[in-house]
Design goal:
heterodimer, A: alpha+beta, 5-stranded antiparallel sheet, 12 helices, 7 strands, B: 66% helix
């Protein structure tokens, strides 16, 4: 028992609280006698206790602390009921689980509100938030440059091809007198047509007998010589199609949009007759058709070399087909003597035809 | 996909993607840049992407651009650590949707992503997984966690209009 000035307060507290034995009490009193300056503290010492307060939690607060008693149903219990609520609203519960959940809510009606609350937790887009500049994202709906050039070139090429053929026919006209029973061959470009080798300086020219006499009935006016041959470099890509020779067919009149091209070609002829170089003029003039024709001739081979009807037609027809996937029909009308009297090139979108004047069937 | 279909995608999805991004990064300019990048990427692949897959492609691309952006900034960390989120102080009654969007901003990024794709766009768990590179059960877990967090934030139903 060691009572000193450092711990005497603890001894005094125990003395007042009645925690000391008689021996200890005597020791404390002896210490106070020996230290009279502390005896004054002893005499003033008084136990103060805090008064009891009536402050208590409200029923509402207590209610918040309480946890509702949960009657478990099947696998649904206090630890996982909210998972089932979410899963129900997510639509991922099986039929038997939905039945179990309904039963759970019936058994625990206090959870109806909770169940409804989970159903309400679904975000809806804030429509007022919008991307500010949609137009900056958009792309112009145009044919890509290479295709556009290709379309122009191909259409031009088909037209040029005809013009080259028509060249000897000085005044193209189509009259009712010219419309007659035609013996025709159609060449339809097939989808599997391989691409032409561009810029080939020596395009392969095949000789193809374009008529298979046995496949065509011998009809009045049908005088295509069975041995007639034509230079058809696109032979491997063209399929002869038999047409009804007895059907009266009208050649397609020239489309208006090619009038300009024809005029251009006429101008070129005149220039050539006057000793001017139309090729140079084409590229120099910067006109659309000039550029097309200049580019076309370069694509087909040596720009100085005069391109033939067949390779121009091949180029034009193939390009057109490649870009549009539309079939191109080339028809030729022949006279009884086996001479070519008219040509027609047609697609779903346009058609060009030309008849040699005064050429009778 | 044609140019016309591409431009239709711009009309149909640019707002939704912008909304999706801006809710994450809360920066209009950066969100616009990300949308722009996503559409640029789509345009580059316009011949490869089928029109019906374009929306998913855009969301996936935008999401990954956004994650890259967040990582670069290092201002936010993409984790599933739920921040301190207690029931909001209900001083007055509030519209539920307002409270939900308030709560949405406090969700971890990944939870925010999956819940927005689910609720805004109606994507399936599998589709969300494809966009976010998560498996289906991970997506499910994140959605469940997000819903619980949102529910706790709302508090009592009577506190909302």
């Amino acid at each position: 028992m060691n009572i000193n000035r450092n711990n005497y307060e603890a001894w005094l507290l125990d003395l007042f609280e009645g925690n000391l034995s008689s021996e200890e009490k005597a020791a404390v009193m002896l210490f106070l006698d020996n230290n009279p300056d502390l005896k004054e503290d002893f005499e003033d010492f008084e136990i103060h206790t805090l008064p009891h307060d009536d402050v208590s939690l409200s029923a509402k607060a207590k209610g918040k602390l309480k946890r509702p008693y949960i009657n478990p149903v099947g696998n649904i219990n206090s630890s996982n009921y909210d998972d089932f609520f979410i899963a129900f609203h997510e639509g991922t519960l099986r039929e038997d689980e939905i039945e179990m959940l309904n039963e759970f809510i019936e058994e625990n009606p206090d959870f109806k509100e909770e169940f409804a609350l989970f159903g309400a937790i679904k975000l809806t887009p804030e429509e007022h938030i919008k991307f500010p500049d949609k137009n900056s994202l958009k792309k112009r709906s145009v044919i890509p440059l290479y295709s556009r050039i290709g379309v122009i070139t191909s259409v031009a090429a088909a037209s040029i091809a005809l013009l080259l053929i028509f060249k000897p026919f000085t005044s193209p006209t189509v009259t009712n007198d010219n419309i007659s029973m035609l013996q025709t061959r159609q060449f339809v470009l097939q989808s599997e047509a391989p691409e032409l080798a561009m810029r080939s300086t020596s395009p392969t020219i095949l000789h193809y007998e374009d008529a298979e006499p046995e496949a065509l009935p011998e009809l009045p006016g049908s005088t295509i010589p069975p041995t007639a041959t034509h230079e058809v470099s696109y032979m491997s890509k063209l399929r002869p199609v038999e047409v009804n020779s007895t059907q009266e067919r009208t050649l397609i009149p020239p489309a208006n949009e090619y009038t300009q091209l024809m005029a251009y070609m006429k101008m070129r002829e005149e220039m050539a007759q006057n000793g001017e170089n139309p090729q140079e003029e084409s590229s120099r003039s910067g006109s659309l058709f000039g550029k097309v024709i200049h580019g076309l001739s370069q694509d087909l081979g040596d720009s100085k070399k005069k391109f033939s009807f067949l390779n121009v037609l091949e180029y034009g027809v193939t390009q057109y087909h490649k870009l549009t996937n539309n079939p191109v029909t080339v028809e030729k009308e022949v006279t009884k003597e086996g001479k070519t009297s008219a040509y027609s090139v047609s697609t779903e979108n346009f058609g060009i035809s030309h008849r040699k004047p005064n050429e009778k069937l | 996909m044609t140019t016309l279909q591409y431009n239709t995608c711009v009309n149909d999805y640019s707002d939704a993607i912008f909304r999706f991004i801006v809710k994450h990064i809360r920066d209009d300019n950066k969100a616009q840049d990300i949308v722009q990048e996503a559409f640029t990427r789509l345009w580059e692949k316009v011949s490869d992407v089928q029109a019906e897959k374009a929306k998913s492609y855009l969301f996936t691309t935008a999401y990954h651009f956004m994650i890259d952006n967040i990582r670069k900034d290092k201002k936010q960390v993409v984790t599933d650590l739920t921040p301190e989120m207690t029931e909001r102080a209900h001083n007055d009654y509030s519209d539920l949707n307002v409270i939900l969007h308030e709560a949405l901003l406090k969700l971890p990024e990944i939870q925010k992503t999956v819940i927005m794709l689910r609720d805004y766009e109606g994507y399936s768990y599998q589709e969300i997984g494809e966009i976010t590179n998560l498996n289906e059960s991970q997506v499910k877990v994140y959605i469940f966690r997000a819903r619980k967090t949102l529910r706790n934030y709302i508090g009592k139903l009577e506190n909302v209009i």
